[in-house]
Structures are given as C-alpha cells and as structure tokens.
Amino acid sequence: MRSIDKRFARMLDCGQVVAMKHIELAIVDLDNTLYAANNGVFDRMDRRMNHFIARELGVTEAIADQLRRSYWRSYGTTLKGLMVHHGVAPEPFLDEVHDIEVHGLLVNDGRLNEALHAIPCRKVIHTNGTKEHAERILNVLGVSEHFQAIYDIRFNHYQPKPCSVTLQMLLDAESTPAHCSIVVDDMADNLHAAKQLGAKTVWVETQKGAHIYHDLPWDFHVADIHDLSLHWQGMH
Ligand SMILES: [Mg+2]
After folding, report:
1. CA–CA separation, 190 vs 198, rounded Å?
2. How many whole angstroms from 187 Cα to the centroid of ligand 1?
3. What is the pLDDT of residue 66?
4. What percent of the chain has a predicted confidence (pLDDT) above 70?
5. Which of 61, 170, 188, 228 is deepest in the core (most CB within 10 A)?
6. Which domain covers residue 62, as residue numbers?
7. Contact indicator for 95, 131 with CB cutoff of 8 Å
8. How far is ligand 1, taken at its centre, from the CA of residue 27, in Å?
9. Are 116 and 231 in the same domain?
10. Are 64 and 57 in contact (CB under 8 A)?
11. How far is the CA of 103 from the centre of ligand 1 (A)?
C-alpha cells in the first residue's frame, strides 16, 4: 500500500474527507509538477541563466553556475538573488532564460489530460516562471484548456514561492478563501505557505527516489501527477 492510500485511509477514519467537498480551486505548480523537468527543460534554462550571468556580471561560466545555484537556494529563484545583489532588471533575464524550444523535450500527455478532466473544480497555474513559458509547456502537453488562469512571477512582483503574501494575492484575485483551495506542488517548502493560510496541500513526488517529507505539511502525497485525479475522485 502506498503512502497516499494509508493517509487517505486515516482521513476517512478522521472524517477529513468531508472537508474536501468544499474545494473550489486547485492551484497547480508547473515545472516538475505537471511534467518532469529533468528531461532537458531545466538543463536548457540553467545553461541560459549561466550565459546571462557570465555576460552581465563579467564572470566565468563556472562562477556564474555557482551564483545561479547559490541564489536559487537562498532566495527561491536565481533572479531574486540577481536583483538583490546586482540590481539586475528582471524582464531581460526572464525573456532570455525562458526562450527555449520545448518541442522535442515534451510531448502530448493524454493521461495528464484525462487526470485533469477528472478534477471537478477551477484550476489555475502558479509558477515562478513566466506566463509565456507556462503557455508553451501547457500547449505541448495538450492541457491548456484545463487552466483558467496563469499566475506567474510578474503577478508575484518577482517574489518567488514560497510566499504566503503572493499566495494570498492569488486567492484574492480568485475570490476564493484559502480553506476552499488546494495547492499542488513538487516543492514541499512551497506547501508551508499554503498550509499556513489554511489551504489543503498535495506534494507531487516528481523526482523519483526523493526524500519523503513525512514531517512537512502535505495532506496528500502522490508519486505521480497522473494519480492525482484518482484520489481526488475518492475524496468527493
Ligand atoms: Mg515546481
């Protein structure tokens, strides 16, 4: 029995399943949640970030690579570190880094399409990337029609997830209280902000073999995004 099944069984025992009937909005992360980004998408964006940093800061590619990793760990996005420490303008960075050809790396995902069809609520994307990047990914996966809105890093005023302030901004824009929403994300830390506001949370274990964060605030854990709808149906 997988962990989702055990947890679901415990929820049934505790009567928590009743609360899931009130979910009106699913807030879904993009990269590494709807698809596995280790298939080349992240590699291409990382290389573009390194080129940008090396050129703009006048450093070697090796130092640029270190800065990219360091700022990502410290601030949630490399961009935020570049803005704070180097006064980098965000738009040229975002345009250059996300201008990648995703055809050939990703393909139409019929199973994901079916899974999203089976989730009976409004669905939106919340991403640390750009809206254009999200649109390209959703189009290639063939699931654009499922998402009524895309909330990107610009909507967040370049403040990356995890951030309870920007998540509350999204909820306000959607006119949905936190307790009527569920946040789906591969980064367990991002679920903290959601839980603090009172949202339900789903941790998607996109990176196989990743540490299982039993101590972090996820209500559900799925080893594969395609499993999400199966358990959702069970919750209603
Ligand atoms: Mg992600």
Report:
1. 13
2. 6
3. 97
4. 83
5. 228
6. 41-98
7. no
8. 12
9. yes
10. yes
11. 19
Closest CA to 71 of 86, 56, 59: 86
Ligand 1 center to 156 CA (angstroms): 15
Taking a 5 Å cut-off on Cβ, the residues next to ion ligand 1 are 29, 31-33, 186
Q: Which residues are CB-neighbours of 54 under 8 A, at least 6 positions away?
A: 60, 61, 63, 64
**For residue 13, how far is its CA from the centre of ligand 1 (angstroms)?**
31
- Domain with residue 70: its CATH number is 1.10.150.450
Q: Are residues 115 and 200 in the same domain?
A: yes
> Which residues are bridge partners to 184 per DSSP?
28, 202
Distance 128 CA to ligand 1 centre (A): 8
Q: What is the predicted pLDDT for the residue at 175? A: 97
Mean pLDDT of 209-233: 71
Query: What is the predicted pLDDT for the residue at 210?
Result: 53
d(CA 30, ligand 1 centre) in Å: 6
In a shared domain, residues 29 and 134: yes
Same-domain status, 50 and 77: yes
Residues 71 and 150 placed together within one structural domain of the fold = no
Query: What mean pLDDT is predicted for residues 92-102?
Result: 91
Of 68, 98, 128, the position where a domain reaches its end is: 98
The total number of structural domains in the chain stands at 2
**Cβ atoms of 196 and 178 closer than 8 Å:** no
For residue 209, CA distances in Å to 22, 149, 224 come to 33, 32, 12
